[in-house]
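[step 3/7] fold_predict: job queued, chain A
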Amino acid sequence: MSFLIKNARAVYAPGSPESTDIRISEGFITELGQGLLPLPGHQERMIDVSNCVVYPGFVNTHHHLAQSILKGVPEGLNQRLGDWLVSVPYRFWPKITPELMYQAARLGFYELLRSGTTTCADHHYLYHKNTSPEVEAAVWQAAEEMGIRFVLCRGGTTTHGSHRGMEKSAVESESLDQYLSLLEGTRTRHHDPSPIAMKRLVVAPTSLVHGSEPDHLRVMADYARSHQLKMHSHLLEVSYDDEQALARYGMSAIDYAESCDWLGSDVWFAHLVKTDTHAIQTLAETGTGIGHCPTSNCRLGSGIAPVIEMVEAGVPVSIGVDGSASAESASMLQELNLSWLLHRTQHGAEATHLEQILQWGSLGGAKILGLDGVGEIAVGKAADIALYNIDNPRMVSVHSPLWAPLMCGEPAQVDYLFVNGKLRVEFGEVVGVDERQLVNDIHEALNELAKLVLK
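[step 4/7] structure written:
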């Protein structure tokens, strides 16, 4: 279907800054301007959005969708990362069945869509020696049903190593051969290399320092690059990465990553909170990016990633919501709002600018993921577009209407959301989702999870 979006209050389209109208055809943005008229002989649906401002759909570069049913677990409320990993995600994940994973993914995608997100990269790590392939299949199914652009970052460990979450787990890691075999199966079934792919695969061992041996990481990197796949992992969320890399390998975590062939323009890491000057320079020189997750880093007391220094050095920056067990809002808009504010506490009011933050959350993420046709409102790009209603008490008085959603943060109303030119949110509701039924399904999932944990 073709659409003509009319009369927006403002559109974030740097190449066409005065635009109020957008034409969408065959999944692409085909025209931007003012006073656009329906094309003769074309069946177009016209949508008046005079109450809305328009952003490119957000690109979330780091999530853990399984954690959507692990919010606010009492044991982990006041724990730092190491203890929290034991008390929350690694306590529950061996119990997550395909049905539980499906419901968690649906909830996670629902939250993202409602916050203006059109692309989700999920660092999915629920793999072990006897894992059911149906757990991963449930995520792919949920993504397709919800209509979100989806990147599966295939996690997992090939050794218990020094991963604090795995230390107390009775789960046996995959072998390297098993990891690669299952990875190849996923690649052949799902991976699309096109610049507007709806499905992508990324090689993403759960923890670069703690979950796989150096030789294993080199083999994974070689596999990824031989198939032109991106690479992702956690790194330097806390100082423990540097401590273990120095104790086990005699070098810093960033130098260890380099020694394992895990730096480059095809790599990005989540968190990077504890990066020093040497690490930042190395990231910049190699083009390695960051998935900045400020809410989770605050929630777990890990610190503030030195993103301003990274930007100055030339490190590619994107934004991730991280898992909902350590970032309960699960909203990309909330992450952008916090990113705008947080770094000002360290560097002053001129440290961050709204346009820069919006770029991190959209085009920055698209570039890191290699989705070159996504992340901006421009003719020829995929129609991934979020339309925020600002005709409400929280936002109506903002003197800079374009920036009202970013400045005010949640709660915000997405009236319409397009993914690849298809309406995924309409009149403020996610298309095809009964919200009451979704809530009931999650209640049932939580009851089932509680029974499984008690066994």
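[step 5/7] annotate
The first strand starts at residue 2 and ends at 6.
The radius of gyration is 21 Å.
exit 0
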